[in-house]
Amino acid sequence: MNVEMPENKDQLDVAIIGAGPAGLQAAYSLQGRGLTVEIFERGAVGEFFRNFPRHRNLISINKVHTGLSDPEAQLRYDWNSLLGDPVPRFTTHSPKYFPTADEYVGYLEGFADTLGDIIHANCKITRIGRDGDGYVIESADGLSRRARQIIVASGVTLPWLPDVEGIDLVEIYNDFDTSPESFINKRVLVLGKGNSAFETAEKLIETTQATHVMSPNKLKFAWNTHFVGHLRAVNTNFLDTYQLKSQNAVLDARPIKIEKDGDTFVVTAEMTAASGHEIVLTYDRVICCTGWRFDASIFDDEIRPDMAHMGKFPKMSANWELEGAPGIWFAGTIMQCRDFKKTMSGFVHGFRHNIDALARFVEARAKGTELPVQQVDLAPETLAPMLVERASISAALFLQPGFLADVICLSGPQAGACHAAMPLDWAKETVLREGDYLTLTLEFGDFGENPLHVNRSHNAFGGAPDPFIHPVLRHWRDGQEVAMMHLSDHLDADWRDRGDRDAGAGTVLRMTYADKGAPRAPSDVALEQVTAFLAGLAAGAPAIAAAE
């Protein structure tokens, strides 16, 4: 899939660095918008997934059987497929709920084939610099290419290591020997408390004498936070072996110093849950599983991004652009700089939708046009069911809760223009500043102390926001939020009438609302809630009033 690249070729519209899922998604989206695109990849397509996770099982779900026929709705439960039509879905590539990384590489290779001969494999970019009205990229083997815009989708390629004396002595998750026989009867310390740390600890249960997992931070579980980067249940078997006293342990401790005494590691740590308490431990192996960081060294000094979140990610604007270098954009897992540990921009099922929005920014910049929008009918009898439909099937709003929003203009010459699934932070800085707008997001409420046992009083109107994911409508005027409504949550996360859904799909027929008396169909209540909200803002939103 390598491409010959003559020196005299015309300037590209967009050069993309990285042929992982983010780079492939960006290329597909931009090709469909008529832009000339090439991808430059340091290894092979899907290089990251050829190496990681080290034990080869993904924790991104691949739910094949959903009862849903709408391709958009299916994506809510398919965390691996890239966006496109027609392109193959990963759900046809593997039946496994938790597929393997090797299966995903095969899927990415097939997706790459749909792009044509635009990928330069084994082409490591070593420099990004300014060049006239655009930019130039250079590779380790002397290749040079000019582009009007650049999308950096290279991921996080360098290990992030904690500031600990002696950290250079330990093994790193990126390249440690995973063979089970090398751990037989060993005492092992795993530094970190994320999924890579527990993935590693989980695989050691059968062979080690003792395994300890250490970090100064307390454990955060994805089922509590709704952030899939926190510890997933699939990686928690190790906790049984700790709490049931099977020689393993999870330590809330900050490693201070790591030393070698012959073949033994001596680790001095401060217990963070017991202030002032120090402990000295001995191990046969120490493995650092503390994540990765972005390599900014390829940027010329004048455009090198500042770093955020402990130096892990490049800083970027609300629409993922490098500030001070218009036309350089970021895509993929590094997009999580904008919603770090809140929503899903660090993962395929989140950033694929971010990239769909990013492609609109890149297209508008390339063509010198306004952002493309959809037109919606503002008549309440049309707008209300449309909002219910979007809340019920949109994968972007569902998988990027509170981060991506539908933004609908209610006044002025742009009335009826809808920016679908765009970053809400960007909207607040731009279009929402003047005029009347309606935004639709999906958001979680407060689950309290135990998300598996939630005390609740279910009200259609006037109660506290429901805990489970639900639609939120907001009315904005000249940059200020002037009205808001939280719709009731729904066990199926589908607020449509059952007659508008797939036969046999969903479970909820009726439920009780404390302020409505007898059990009601959730679809009726949702439409009533949306209609009431639109009626409430009609007086202040000229286009809505006119539509009535």
UniProtKB/TrEMBL annotation:
Domain of life: Bacteria
MF GO annotations: flavin adenine dinucleotide binding; monooxygenase activity
SUPFAM superfamilies in UniProt: FAD/NAD(P)-binding domain
The entry's keywords: Oxidoreductase
Keyword rRNA-binding appears in the UniProt entry: no
InterPro entries assigned to the protein according to its UniProt record, in alphabetical order: Auxin_biosynth/cation_transpt (IPR050982), FAD/NAD-bd_sf (IPR036188)
UniProt GO BP: auxin biosynthetic process
UniProt-recorded name of the protein: FAD-binding protein
Organism: Aliishimia ponticola
